[in-house]
Amino acid sequence: MTAIKAGEQTPSRTSGEWWRQRPHPRHPPVSRRRTLALACIGAASFWLVNLAISLTSIAAEYRTATSIAYVPMLFEALAGGLVIALCVAYPLQRSFAESAPGRSVLAGLLLSGAVLVAATVLIEAPAKLLAAAGPDLRSFLVALLFNGLRILALGAAIGVAHAHARMAALTPSARSGGPARSPRQRR
Fold first, then answer.
1. pTM above 0.85, yes or no
2. φ and ψ at 22, to 5 degrees?
3. At 88, which helix (H) or strand (E)?
4. E-strand spans in the chain?
5. Residue 109, number of CB atoms within 10 A of its CB
6. Cα 99 from Cα 30, distance rounded (Å)
7. What is the pLDDT of residues 75-124, one digit of tens each?
8. How many CA atoms lie within 13 A of 18 on its CB side?
């Protein structure tokens, strides 16, 4: 709990302002615009990898075996990629905002890897391995490969975009490691 300074009023829960309290010092506020921008970049990379995968013969065979229509699958991939990207972009900004920009890619890959594990355990494994027709190990492994490629590409794209935004936000003195100086002062 933060101490209240003299003369400072705290919003009460009944005033409707309780949600505007100062953020916790460890967690900087997260910009909705930046989160949405990162999510759109991640969703675009997810969709592009999905499009590239869908043009292969293995994907055509998988779609035939699981009765997936091609065009609706493309729209579903766009929507699913946006949801997954939001689940990666928000925690990346919330937890790794103060870390070095070079670590953003690794953090994006770790977060997307966690999403991949969760999607595999909660969605793919029950659908493919616990099916009434019997376990279909081959389709499970193909789906795991496709999801791994798509979700990890999403995490890498979000990490790179986050690192780029962090580098652009740094002042020239922070980039060079010293105080900002004019060209005359450097002599």
1. no
2. -60, 145
3. helix 70-95
4. none
5. 20
6. 15
7. 999 999 999 999 999 999 888 766 776 788 899 999 999 999 999 999 88
8. 5
Question: How far is it, in rounded angstroms, from Cα 155 to Cα 108?
Answer: 5
Could you give phi then psi for residue 10, rounded to 5 degrees? -100, 140
Q: Which of 20-29, 121-130, 132-141 has the lowest mean pLDDT?
A: 20-29
The answer to whether 90 and 32 have CB atoms below 8 angstroms apart is: no
Can you tell me the distance from the alpha carbon of 187 to that of 180, in angstroms, rounded to the nearest whole number? 13
Residue ranges per domain, the chain? Answer: 30-169
Tokens for 88, please give them. Answer: 């990666």
What single-letter DSSP state applies at residue 18? G
Residue 140's alpha-carbon distances to 119, 145, 146, 149, 177, in angstroms, are: 12, 9, 10, 14, 49
In this structure, the dihedral spanned by the alpha carbons of residues 72, 48, 106 and 112, taken in order and rounded to 10 degrees, is 0
* Whole-number Å distance between alpha carbons of 112 and 84: 8
Confidence of residue 7 (pLDDT cuts 50, 70, 90): low
Give yes or no for a contact between 163 and 101, defined as CB atoms under 8 angstroms apart.
Answer: yes
